[in-house]
Amino acid sequence: MSNTQSSDSTETLPDSADGVARAAALLAAGGLVAMPTETVYGLAADARKDRAVARIFNAKGRPRFNPLIVHVADVEMAKRYVEWSSLADRVAQAFWPGALTLVLPLRTDSGLSPLVTADLPTLAVRMPAHPLAQDLLRLFDGPVAAPSANPSGKISPTTADHVAAGLTGRIEGILDGGPCPVGVESTILGLSGTPTLLRPGGIPQEALEQCLGQPLEVYQNGDALTAPGQMTSHYAPGASVRLNADALAEGEVMLGFGAMECTLNLSPAGDLVEAAANLFGHLHALDAMGPEGIAVAPIPETGLGRAINDRLRRAAAPR
Ligand code: TXA
Ligand code: MG
Questions:
Q1: What is the CATH number of the domain that holds 95?
Q2: Which residue, 124, 257, 265, 281, could crosslink 69 as a Cys pair with Cβ 3.0–4.6 Å?
Q3: Cβ 67 under 6 angstroms from ligand 1
Q4: Shared-domain flag, residues 209 and 257
């Protein structure tokens, strides 16, 4: 086996058939493995095993009432765990594999650990597009629960190094698939009732509305209990974050967008897809400079800009 051993017994697994085989074996043994997806790295465990799922919450310091997304290899596998529907079929045809999570009624015979759904009657499912995630899901051939692979409330990981910095010693392995190409988490679409955007993400709201032929309801923080995990403060760097900034204050570094002077620029060309891919990496890098604050330039509230602004608002929220 060509995996290397890092400190505190977290193995770094290479982007190879051996690496995927080792990751699948660790999952089968009830272990925790960070896996690359096209959005962010996920912290994976066998969704049928209570102890493995409980260890996810412990490793992240995640509140138990915040449910997890189950990752599947294909639509057939999804149908084993949720009550599928024609609307689910329509959006899955259009956007799977990809950065879209569907919330559907949980099947009573799903066999999943109740910790996965935090006892909700619904389940979030996603078929990721990253080739390594697909290889792992096919080889493991079972449901994989995976939240983002960061300590709860902190900046999400888009490289294996980000994962290692937050979780080394707490998990068995990290499958290194390089940087995540999309860079923000999946869009979460609620389909257990009226189609509702529960979290903006890598698939733009506009694209979903076009596919469904109707406008979506949009979940607002504080609405009922539809998305219990939509905590207000999240993605928080060590430094404070100030949004819609046009100039620097004392002690700040600047996260820019579009042609401007700044410390790091999400996209000098003003491209929202490039900006999403750079978002968490730039936040990690600016935070590592140890500033008092991070000032962020305005980002347009359209397409992927909605997901970027959602993450930035949470990063800036009172803690
Ligand atoms: O791109 C992604 O979605 C990444 C990758 C790893 O797949 N995963 C991710 O997981 O972002 P996490 O746990 O960081 O965020 C999942 C969100 C949480 O806000 C959780 O509350 C919500 O999904 N969620 C999970 N199950 C739900 C359900 N049944 N109903 C409503 N929201 C749910
Ligand atoms: Mg997360």
A1: 3.90.870.10
A2: 124
A3: yes
A4: no
Helices and strands, counts by H and E, the chain: 10, 16
pTM of the model: 0.93
Residue 230 phi/psi, 5-degree rounding, is -80, 65
The continuous run of DSSP H or E covering 316 comes out as helix 304-316
Q: What is the pLDDT of residues 67-78, one digit of tens each?
A: 999 999 999 999
- Residue to mutate (ligand 1; options 62, 65, 100, 101; most atoms within 8 A of CB): 101
Distance separating alpha carbons of residues 229 and 252, to the nearest angstrom? 30
**Tokens found for residue 254:** 């600047």
8: closest CA among 174, 237, 144?
174
3-state secondary structure of 17: helix
Q: Both 103 and 166 in a single domain?
A: yes
Distance of alpha carbon 130 from alpha carbon 133, whole angstroms: 5
Ligand 1 atom at shortest distance from the alpha carbon of 186: 1
Any atom of ligand 1 within 6 Å of the Cβ of 156: no
Number of domains in the chain: 2
pLDDT band for 13, please (50, 70, 90 cuts): very high
